Amino acid sequence: MDLLESCKMAIATLTANKMRSGLTMLGIIIGNASVIAMIGIGQGAQQLASKEFKNLSPNTLFIVPGSREARNATFDLPKTLVLEDAKAIAKQVPSVIAVAPEINRRELISYRNKTTATQVTGVTPDHMIVRSFEVNKGRFINSIDVDRNKRVVALGSEVANRFFKGQNPIGQQIRIKDISFEIVGVMAEKGSMLGTNQDDSVFIPLTTMAYQLVGKTSPYGIELTWINVAAKDEETVRAAKFQIENLLRLRHKIVDEDDFGVESPKQLLEIFYKITNGLTIMLASIAGISLLVGGIGVMNIMLVSVAERTQEIGLRKAIGAKEQDILAQFLIEAVIVSAAGGTIGIILGVGSVYLIGAISPLTATISPYAILLALGVSSSIGLFFGVIPAQRAAKLDPIVALRSI
C-alpha cells in the first residue's frame, strides 16, 4: 500500500469519528498554543525592555541598595543608601556631571472627589538631567523647593489628564496622603520603564518626601530608594563606576560583600533578559507538559481504535496486507492527529500573542523557530506515542482477529 493511499484511509477513519478525534487533539492544541504564547510573550517583553532602555542615555548609572544576594532574593531591598552618599558622589567623583537621588513610594493622591493610587517620587532638580525628563507646563522641582521642604508637586502627564483633563492644573492643590501640595508643573510624556508607567507618577522635593510622607530615616541620614548618576560621557562610564564603588566602600566601611550595586542600562537589560529567558523557559516547559498529556491521550485513543478495529485488521491481513502496512496505517493516523492538533494550536497561539500585543504595551513577536519546533514536537509526539498501538495492531494474529467476526 502506498503512502498516499494510507493517508486517505487514515483521514477517512479520523473523520468518521470526529468527536473522538477532536478530543484527542485537544491536549496537543492546548500544549502548542501555550508554548507559542509563552515564547511570544517572553520575546515581546524583551523587545519592550530593549526599546525602553534605548531612551536612557548610555552614560547613565544606577546605584541600587542591598547586596547582590539580597537583590536576587527579594524585591523589598534594604535601605543601605542615604542622601549623604549621593552628595559625596557629586562632590568627590570627577567623572560624574549629575547625581539624582530618589525616594519612591506608592501613595493615594486626591483632587476634590477624585482619588487614585500612583507612584510618588521624591527628587532633586538633577533628576531631569540624569533621567532626560522634560516639562510640558510650568516648572520642575528646584533647589529652593528641596532646601525649604516645600509642598509642591509636578504631575506626570497621565495623572494630569486624569484629574485636570482640558484644564490648566498649575496653581491647583492636590492632596498626597492627606497633605496639600501646590501643582507647579506638568511633565511631558515619557513612557514606560521596565513595566512601570513613568507618566502615571508625581514628583515632589526629596526632603519633603523624606520628612513629611515617608517619615523614616536611618541613623545615617535620609534613606534612598536608589541613586541615578550621569557620567561625563560614554567613555567615562567605567571610570565613574569604579570611582563610585570605591567611594561607597570607604563610606560604608565595607570589608566583605558590597551592600550596594552600580549598574549601567546595558547591565540591567542583560539581567532583565536573563530573568525573562528563565521565566519563558519555565512557563514554556510547564505548558509543554500538556503536550505530553496530549501524547498519552493519542496513545490511549489509538489503543482503543486497535481494539475496535480487530476485525478490520484481521480481514486486511487475510487478504494479503503485511505487518508493515498495518504499522504504517496506525502510525500515519497518530501523526495526522498530532500534526493537525499542532497546527490548530499554533494558529491559536499566534492569535493570542497578537491579541496580547494589541491590548498591552508588549510587542507581538512570533518566532518562526518556535513555530517549527512546536509543530515538529507535536508530530514527533504522535509518532512516538503511536508506535505501541501500531505495533500491537501489526502483531495481531489474523486467525484470532477473524474468530471475533
From TrEMBL:
It is found in: Cell membrane. Its main location: membrane. GO terms for cellular component: plasma membrane. Keywords: Cell membrane, Membrane, Transmembrane, Transmembrane helix. GO terms for molecular function: transmembrane transporter activity. Residues 285-398 form the ABC3 transporter permease C-terminal domain. InterPro entries: ABC3_permease_C, MacB_PCD, Macrolide_Exporter_MacB. Pfam families: FtsX, MacB_PCD. The keyword Cell membrane applies. Belongs to the ABC-4 integral membrane protein family. This is ABC transporter permease.
